[in-house]
């Protein structure tokens, strides 16, 4: 039944794409943007295999380094999210109908639905949604895949984001699917974070295939964000219907401020207008593209992104878009390292490898219980066979385990950890119900 539905949808989709004439919102019978035949500009006789068409040989002839895998797989969380959000908004269905194998068995998203969009916006969102399918496929092909996480794309979740952004309950509750402007405002939330993530990932990957992948993803992600911001900038002075005098500009300002607040790493996000001194070269208030000094894009680490996407301000505490947590080794370990008391005190703000990311996370999380360690170790090493697990008695000594298992895995010189403890940053605290705890001083 599922495969029949899937095949039917693909047939409809193909017919739509071929004819470019039916089922467009507004019932436009002819699509003026579809060329009548293969455009002459695209139909060249060039042979793409010619040496002159190929990039020069890489200086380091390694396609993929092992440490490239985790950060690129982490990006799949955002790509899945964008794919489901845009595809559902445009077509009313998501990856499960369009490319079911790419979900890798992950659960379907919650609350995503077809949006009430004008024709131009529908076209843009449909294109972006299909682009995201390619992004998911390209990452899976290059570094391997992770299952789609549970993604909450419900109107309720977006309403919560906007309520958080404004600091009070918007009445009526914000609904991204109700009209074009609301959908554009909701779309302001996600691709920008993908862009930040890729800029942050760039310095910590080295394989030439991984770099090619990241550059290709970053280019389109930045383009998508620019389209959303450009469309919103055109309407910056408009009052958002149902919300009195609140303008598009204020919505974007509030969302950007919220992301800065949750990210806990200073200003890496700006609305559509800024004080002149923060604009490009300190000379303009217009801020169609969000960028920092020298007009370079801001970078965010996976931990920062999770703080924002979870809406908790804590990369160890799932929520928001990912009620059960994001997938991939980075997110899973960060989640497992939390047992529920004190919040982070050492936020990870600079791009760095998984090792340092997790060190920062480790210093940041406050309590490690012996009970929690087997799961942490299993996740870190991806043990599937019980016989491969460390002996249980070793798990009764969290501090020793940190030095003997976690630290070598993380690639961190154990002196770092010892220094952290000797300097008083960490110390053993108490025995409680058979658990030994480490606590931030
Ligand atoms: Fe994407």
**How many domains, in number, for the residues?**
2
Biggest sheet strand order reads 1-2
The count of strands amounts to 2
Q: C-alpha Rg, in Å?
A: 24 Å
Residue ranges: pLDDT <50 for 5 or more in a row? 17-29, 339-346, 353-371, 381-441
Mean pLDDT equals: 78
Helix content: 40-55%
Strand share of the residues? Answer: under 5%
CA-based shape: globular
Protein name: Desiccation-related protein PCC13-62-like
Pfam family, one: Ferritin_2
Organism: Panicum miliaceum (Proso millet)
Keywords: Signal
How is this structure best described in words?
The protein is mainly α and 441 residues long. The protein has two domains: 249 residues; 113 residues, no CATH class. It is built from 15 helices and two strands. The protein has a two-stranded antiparallel sheet. α5 packs across α9 and α13 runs parallel beside α14. The N and C termini lie far apart (58 Å). The C terminus is likely disordered. It binds fe (ii) ion.
Could you outline the blueprint of secondary structure elements for this entry?
Blueprint: H1 2-19, H2 66-91, H3 95-98, H4 119-143, H5 155-166, H6 180-187, H7 191-201, H8 208-234, H9 248-263, H10 302-309, H11 329-336, H12 354-364, H13 373-381, H14 398-410, H15 414-422, E1 426-432, E2 435-440
Antiparallel strand pairs: 1-2
Bound molecules: fe (ii) ion.
Residues 79, 82, 132, 135, 194, 221 line the site of fe (ii) ion (FE2).
